[in-house]
Amino acid sequence: MRRSALYSRSPRRDVPAGDTTQATAPDTPPAAAAPVAARRSRFAFAQRHERWLALCAGLLVGAIAFALWNSARPAARALTQKDIDGAVLHTLATQTLPSRAAKAYEAVRPSIVKVIGTGYPDDDKDDAKKRDKADTDKAGKAGKGDKPSTAPKDDTKRAEAKPPVAPAAPADRKAAGPDDKKDRQPLPDGHPDSGKGIGIGTGVVIVDTKGIILTNLHVVLGASKIKVVFFDGLESEATVIGVQPENDLAVLKASNLPDDLKAAVLRSTQDLAPGDEVVAAGFPFGIGPSASAGIISGLKREYRSPEGKRLLTNLIQFDAAANPGNSGGPLVTMDGEVVGIVTAILNPTDQRVFVGIGFAVPIENAASAVGMSPF
Questions:
Q1: Is 82 helix (H, G, I), strand (E, B) or coil?
Q2: Angle 50-72/33-48 helices, nearest 10 degrees?
Q3: Is 292 helix (H, G, I), strand (E, B) or coil?
Q4: Coil vs helix vs strand at 302
Q5: What residues are paired with 227 via a beta bridge?
Q6: Taking the alpha carbons of 330, 334, 335, 336 in that order, is the dihedral positive or negative?
Q7: How far apart are CA 225 and CA 120, in angstroms?
Q8: Is residue 206 helix, strand or coil?
Q9: Where does the pLDDT of residue 41 fall: very low under 50, low under 70, confident under 90, or very high at 90 and above?
Q10: 285: phi > 0 → left, psi -120 to 50 → alpha, else beta; which?
Q11: How many Å apart are CA 161 and CA 15, to the nearest integer?
Q12: Quick check: 135 pLDDT over 70?
């Protein structure tokens, strides 16, 4: 039986006799298809990373723009002394700077304390009572028509009678500085020490960690209680831990201290000269703290108390205003350094106010009262 021929469904192509390329590799793509495929691959990559590519391009453009701007910018001119002087003059012309005295006061202000002594015998009140009693007795006798007695005085009984004992505090406190009675300020009604007298002075902190304060001896001598008021308003009781009567100095120790207490800076008086500017700080008449400015008027001066009982030597004379209440306060240079402790004023009248001559104990003597080197 004859079999029929089998045919494929695809049309038959005639292949030239000498061409064997398609016969051997019918599935190989043409050569032009390779670049197209590469372009398609890059395009697909760009689509996947479009945001990152845009960010990188922006940064690159910004860097190029900054480089161009920086290269076109003129170089900074170096400052000269003329520029600096001009800036200083402009500042001085447009701004008000604090004075040297103001800066000196601000430097020492945190170290200034108000010293209050209470419990002094009230001599003024006692004297007033005695005068009132004498006037009453005299008026009573005059009303009754009594005649003055002509009997001889009994000198024996007068000799046997013991004289009244004068309080030690006022007598000693007059040895230097303001008068004790006029230095006192009245206490408010109901105060536990009302009627006992009060003395107000100034002190300066010289050891901040222990609360050591320098003041005048006549400010605290005879007081039954001593209180100090610091710059921030903190009040504390204080006790006397040392005295130097020959220089009218007392050393106090406060029981409570502020957290930011600052000790004053002490300076030697060896290079002081008449004409040097100084500031006296304290509580004149209890007002303050107050500052007054002046100069050094002289060195190695002497001062004798009004009663003539005590002579102070080697004092600094100054003309910065000082009044009752300034006693014990610091005398400060324009650098804010303490060179002395204000201790007395000279006034030939009984007014006990400043007439231009004040005295301060050199800080070397004041520090020796504490038993320490001041520098």
A1: helix
A2: 80
A3: strand
A4: strand
A5: 116, 237
A6: positive
A7: 9
A8: strand
A9: confident
A10: left
A11: 166
A12: no
> What φ, ψ does residue 300 adopt, rounded to 5°?
55, 45
Contacts of 325 (CB under 8 A, 6+ apart): 178, 183, 200, 201, 202, 282, 283, 284, 285, 286, 287, 288
In angstroms, the CA 272 to CA 283 distance is 25
Is the peptide bond between 289 and the residue preceding it cis, with omega within 30 degrees of 0? Answer: yes
Residues 6+ apart with CB under 8 A from 219: 115, 117, 173, 177, 199, 200, 201, 202, 203, 250, 327, 328
Q: Give residue for tokens 């001085």.
A: 92
What does the radius of gyration of the chain's CA atoms come to, in whole angstroms?
Answer: 48
Residue with tokens 């209050």: 116
Both structure tokens of 115? 């010293």
Q: Does an H or E element contain 254, and which?
A: strand 249-254
Whether the per-residue pLDDT at 106 is higher than 60: the answer is: yes
Query: Please, which residues have CB within 8 angstroms of residue 191's CB and are 6 or more apart in sequence?
Result: none
| Other residues' Cβ atoms within 10 Å of the Cβ of residue 118 | 20
Check: pTM over 0.90? Answer yes or no: no
Q: Which of 342, 221, 369, 359 shows the shortest CA–CA distance to 280?
A: 342
Q: Which residue type sits at 293?
A: A
Q: What is the SS3 assignment for 331?
A: strand
Higher pLDDT, 187 or 9: 9
- Residues paired with residue 333 on neighbouring β-strands, in sequence order: 278
- List domains and CATH numbers for the chain: 265-370 (2.40.10.10)
Q: Which amino acid is at 106?
A: E
CA separation for the pair 127, 123 (Å, rounded): 6
Q: How far apart are alpha carbons 241 and 252 in whole angstroms?
A: 6
Neighbours of 307 (CB within 10 A): 9
